Model the fold of this input.
Amino acid sequence: MAGSRPLVSLVLLAFAMPCMAQRPMDVRVLDSASGAPLPYASVVSAGRAHGGALIANEEGVFRLPPAMAADTVAVSYLGYRTARFPAAALAALPVVRLEPLATELRAVEVRGRSDALYNLLVRAGKNIRRIAPYEARTYFELRSHSEGLPMEAIECFYNGHFAGGNIEGLDLKQGRIGLLPHQGRYVSNLNTSRAFMLLHPAERNSAFPASPLQYTSAAKLRGHYGLQLVSVARGPQVLYRIAFTPKDSSGAFFGGEVWVDSASAEVQRLLLQCRDCRKHPFQPVWPDAVLHRLDLDHSLTFARWNGHQILATAEMDYSVTFRNTGAGDSLAAARPAGYKRDRTMQSKGILHAYAPGSRFLLPYFNYDKDQTDYWKILAMPYDSMFWDAAPTLVRTPGQQQDQALFAAQGLLAGYGLPGLPGRELPLFGSSYAVWSAHRRIRIKDLQPGTGARPPQPAPGFGDAQPFRPVVQLYLNVDSGAHALRIFSATVFDGFRSRFEGTGPQDNLALNIYFDLCEIERRKMQAALERPGITLEQVTLAHDKAELNMKRTGFRFLDDLRSPQAQEKLAGWNQLILAELGVDNCRLFGITTGK
Done:
């Protein structure tokens, strides 16, 4: 019987591979003894599909794409033996059961002059600070709840820049947001990715409490922390689990645990904890609210790549209590039923550098990179092709229910929905608008902070010098299996535009200009769809289209300043009607004459 097993396995593999190549497969990672899911387990492929790495969600489920069907994959989790096997073997039973490492309990507190654990952590911090700069495709997900209801969900892809265990920079590729109002307000984390970048695990933290790995001598570390060896896990490595407790209870120091290789002093995982944290970068946006309490857990996992230690994942789990201070007792009668002065929000974010050594082709698009996560996401058009191919975390049933609530009762932004992004929510408003034949843009709808000036008497067409619209041709390019994937959109840049007046004539001129730019985009898109086009040719086509767009725009603006502006405007309107099927003069109720 034993000799027949290889034959059965080969037969299963022979049938499994064609089935798996047709569609993605969801695989669950479990503890072999208890059957419990292993959240955020790491999955690495010997091939290069999606950069060669995936990540399981909080229920231990990851999605294996068809491109990995012929690969060998390695599934790992801290404290467990790594499992390696052909991906096609999962087709019959999409479950991976990991064996726990042998663990010895060692509840031993370090006392006296024994500096062994202190020296080990000093070496560990030094190793982290030595991590050389590298780039990685990076996935970020954040979800927030309050009183059992979803409030927010954010997904982003970045080019991540890392060094010394720090997240040095995050360049946005694509993002999307879901929101649900709570007690009449949208409560959100406008810039949580910035918080990940501010927390340095092995260096001094200006925005967060101190970490034990930042100290360069055992004596200094001993002065601030007590250490306890919690357990020892024996496998290919001897892994120490060490608890650290600050001697100062003021909130200036993180407590927590660290898992470190006793021989190499390389950190496998670092857990930083702060209860009622007094030092942090979070601030409420609403003027009538104060941040009353913050509890924070920050977890970092490290891995090896190309023989070097790198940061693999960063999780931030925090609970924030806001206290409303602006209503006052005299307004108590006007408060809605069930009004609560304190509002607590629980947020959990994970940032995963899932493809070290590789990077996205960033969109051809200029925007203010110093703005918040929300602002950046709303600035970019939604690229459905990118999201269909992206290796996002598999949504749990609870997350699917949350998204349905956002769609039915709240807001989905960055999901390709029509209209001016964020116009119903001034706090999240974007200065950008994507071209649509079904919805015209109006100057008065643009959010504060754009190039719009205070309303003044509308200038005539012969006095159009203050009218300086700016439009960009957004272009997103990705490497597909056989060719480049290309998505483009025409985007009105209200952040850099300048114009006076908000009357019908001003809106008419604005939309005709926008439509002329859309005509050039369509010519560019047609040129980009020819077979075998290279990235260099894509760049040249984009540059040519933007140049043609500017030339056409200059001609149009010159016509607005001419004495025959009304007649010339009618000609431009006819061109747009023929090319795009849009009659702006009719839509804005203006007779131009000929």
Notes: Residues 1-21, 328-335, 418-427, 448-464 have pLDDT under 50 and may be disordered.
